[in-house]
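Please review the protein record below. Tell me whether the encoded fold seems credible here:
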Amino acid sequence: MGTIMISKKKLIPALAAALLLLPSCAPSGMSRVSQTDISSAYTRTDLSVAAARGPVPVIFSGTIPATDQSKAEAALLAALPRYYVAGLTWRPATANDAGTRLVFAFGAEPIFPPDRLCGLAPRLTLTPPSASTPIQVAAAYCRGPSALSSTVGDVIDPAGITGERAANLISGMANALLPLHTPGDDDFRRPLFLRTGS
């Protein structure tokens, strides 16, 4: 039987990538953003063009831990980053927004196929915040019916969706979905695996 030789240079990155795909062992209260996929059709141009048209629509759908819907929606929008190319800003989406948009789906089982995320309409249901139940989120950056990027994440935040830990999660997920404007780095389509602390 032959022996399979694997160099250390190839083995270590492969092991690191495999570990990142395992269920999170982060302590309670940590934000976890994992398993981000970015389409080969997705480039920085998509983001620049979307930003040039004005605030990018954001859809929030599913069940969120909160007691006041307007405060929850404001907190979610405030958590999104605002320092990308062309002065990217955000606004709540309407049912008519079918172009470029961000979609966040919340719930006990929020992980959908990415393209199904792009078919969701803005619709939130409130549930009491919990100190033990994770806030689970699936998100996608959509163009029409197609997901250009997608990611999943979770966090435990006793304050619910308006808490700081939840805000860190939403911000981290948006960072994972969007191509960062990094000087000297032209590869905006590589898979990203991020973990952000509370």
The chain has a mean pLDDT of 71.
